[in-house]
């Protein structure tokens, strides 16, 4: 299933937040949204996920969701959002229980997503026993358990230290390479965008408009740490964003 955004605009009261966003999110691709603070990235993600109705324009779901899909759109948040009293298995199981899936069928799905996120040995652990990176892997496993058409990821690595972020990027690349998933991935971090994004959408400062859509053809599995090709793309992205980011920052200081 692809997602198509057609001329999305949105305002909160008198504040215009998004302006005329038209964008395709093709199945099996990771589309990163980058842009200065407050430019409307999370708002756009909420609009795609149906948590907010856009003031203008529409979000189209094109084609059928994948077989066995329980939720076409599912979120992965920065703060993991795990239930502390449930084990790793219990946290993943929750989303299946919501759909009445129990016993053997649930066990098969949970075993599969824990294996894919390299958590099989930690199925019985509680969140408080896990590092930040592992907690986020649980959140990703939980998202994968509903076999979503699109994972909406809102700065999923930004609560983690830089080494853990690198490790988790490697994990996401391995996960996607084994079985491609579709994601809209919001990040502030341009290094993350060039490692993970097939398509990087650069938004202007508020109201967020599309400045440029940058495609990166290099396969994810070949994108290595400190890759000079990626550095060039990252530099280009920063050149696009620098003035907007400075203006946005000065605007925030004025508030
Ligand atoms: N529910 C709301 N009501 C009113 N204003 C809101 C609401 N949600 C967001 N905003 C405002 O809309 C603008 C865009 O917010 P949003 O969180 O989408 O931006 P962002 O690009 O994700 O920001 P950041 O990069 O800082 O996380 C901001 O000025 C924010 O204060």
Give structural notes.
With 255 residues, this protein is α/β, with parallel strands linked by helices. It folds into 2 domains: 2-65 and 149-254, P-loop containing nucleotide triphosphate hydrolases (Rossmann fold), CATH 3.40.50.300; 84-147, no CATH class. The protein has 7 helices and 9 strands, in the order βββαββαααβαβαββα. It has helices spanning 41-48, 88-97, 103-116, 132-145, 162-178, 190-196, 228-254, and strands at 2-12, 15-25, 30-34, 56-62, 73-76, 150-154, 183-186, 199-203, 210-215. The chain has a 6-stranded mixed beta sheet, with helices on both faces. The protein has a 3-stranded antiparallel beta sheet with strand order 2-1-4, with helices on one face. β1 (2-12) and β2 form a beta hairpin. The model has no long low-confidence stretch (mean pLDDT 94). Bound molecules: adenosine-5'-triphosphate (ATP). Adenosine-5'-triphosphate binds next to α1.
In N-to-C order, the SSE pattern is EEEHEEHHHEHEHEEH
Low-confidence stretches: none
Please give the largest β-sheet.
Answer: 6 strands, mixed
User: How confident is the prediction overall: mean pLDDT?
Assistant: 94
Supply the CATH superfamily name of the largest domain.
P-loop containing nucleotide triphosphate hydrolases
Oligomer: single chain
Percent strand equals 15-25%
The radius of gyration computed from the alpha-carbon positions, rounded to a whole number of angstroms, is 18 Å
GO molecular function, one term: ATP hydrolysis activity
Family: Belongs to the ABC transporter superfamily.
InterPro entries: AAA+_ATPase, ABC_transporter-like_ATP-bd, ABC_transporter-like_CS, ABC_transporter_ATP-bind, P-loop_NTPase
Pfam families: ABC_tran (PF00005)
């Amino acid at each position: 299933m692809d997602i198509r955004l057609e001329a999305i605009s949105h305002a909160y009261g008198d504040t215009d937040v998004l302006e005329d966003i038209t964008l395709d999110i093709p199945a099996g691709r990771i589309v990163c949204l980058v842009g200065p603070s407050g430019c409307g990235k999370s708002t756009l993600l909420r609009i795609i996920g149906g948590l907010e109705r856009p003031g203008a324009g529409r979000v189209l779901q094109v084609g059928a969701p994948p077989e066995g899909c329980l939720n076409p759109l599912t979120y992965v948040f920065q703060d993991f959002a795990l239930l502390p009293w449930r084990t790793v298995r219990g946290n993943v199981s929750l989303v299946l229980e919501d759909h009445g899936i129990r016993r053997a069928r649930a066990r098969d799905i949970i075993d599969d997503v824990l294996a894919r996120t390299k958590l099989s040995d930690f199925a019985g652990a509680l969140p408080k026993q896990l590092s930040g990176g592992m907690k986020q892997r649980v959140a990703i496993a939980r998202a994968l358990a509903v076999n979503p058409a699109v994972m909406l990821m809102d700065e999923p690595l930004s609560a983690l230290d830089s080494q853990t972020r690198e490790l988790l990027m490697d994990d996401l690349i391995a996960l996607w390479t084994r079985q491609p998933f579709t994601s809209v991935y919001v990040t502030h971090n341009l290094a993350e965008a060039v490692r993970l994004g097939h398509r990087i959408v650069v938004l202007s400062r508020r109201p967020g408009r599309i400045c440029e859509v940058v495609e990166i053809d290099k396969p994810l599995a070949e994108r290595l740490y400190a890759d000079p090709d990626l550095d060039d793309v990252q530099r280009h992205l920063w050149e696009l964003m620098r003035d907007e980011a400075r203006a946005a920052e000065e605007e925030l200081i004025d508030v």
